[in-house]
Amino acid sequence: MKKIIAIIFILYTAFSLSGCAQSTGQIVDSESESQVQVRSYQTREYDVDSKLAIRSVISVLQDLGFVIDRADTLTGTISATKLDGYKIEMTVSLRQKGDTTTSVRANAQYGVKAITEPEIYQDFFTSLDKSIFLEKNL
Amino acid sequence: MSLLKKILILLLVSTLIGCGAIPKDALRLTSLSLELRQMQQKEYANISEKQALIASANVLQDTGYIIKESDLELGLLLAEKDRTAFDAENQAAAIGGTVLIAVLSGLSGSTQPVQPIYADKNQKIRVSIIFRVQEGNSVNVRVSFQRIVWNTANQVSRLETIRDPEIYQSFYTKLDKSIFLAKEDV
Lengths: 138, 186
Prior knowledge:
By secondary structure, chain A is an alpha+beta fold. Chain A has four helices and six strands, in the order H-H-E-H-E-E-E-E-E-H. The radius of gyration of chain A is 19 Å and the shape is elongated. By secondary structure, chain B is α+β, with helices and mostly antiparallel strands. Chain B has five helices and six strands.
């Protein structure tokens, strides 16, 4: 009996100390990564102008099953939600750099957690590569 | 199984679900993506983007949606509506399932209260429509529906993308009509 109570207590403490239970610490954190680190796996550059890039982003988000929540060409941001037994919300922001390059940055959350796995963002950019290729060759 | 062991397992499972891993193919294009696109889009000839947007906004209002975002420059419409999610089959299954669990629980000699199966109660349906001007004075329209369903215990019971072709066909039948009427008006 005592053993079980001890185990419950340890488990509880462990989960409380893990990221799953902090509260106000969540407000301006970047999940214990540096800003530069986060930006590095969330950003890619493409040799296309931002108009084509924006169309490609909207297209790929829809192909991935997202519903576009909002889009603003002035600030170059698009937000979308995917519901599929889970909820993913994503913002993609695009910045024209020079004449023919656009920087694309995506950040997403899964349920109540930020998505911090670079592989997931890699998947998104792989999908976006395909979409941009299609747009270019339309 | 003792009560304490059950609590332990529940704790473990619920925290794991809360901090669960994201599905591996969440952001990957699959053959389903192409199927979805074909279901969701339709091209309309001899129409301006503005006409298509206004006709679509009318269909959304015809079907009771509240428009949340509207951007002609980008060609985007976003709308939502809240409705009951009562469904006779779902309700019957919930009642039947609860009764079954109660009977099995009673038979097994357990004295713990039975956790009922809750039926669906409300849903929030979200829709976004994207317009793309194509060559030759036509507009490509793509609509996506998704919904959140809550049960009678006010828990989220479903988060889903609508993939039923009939629903999309039904939307486009209405849009066909709306665009026809819009053209007449001009």
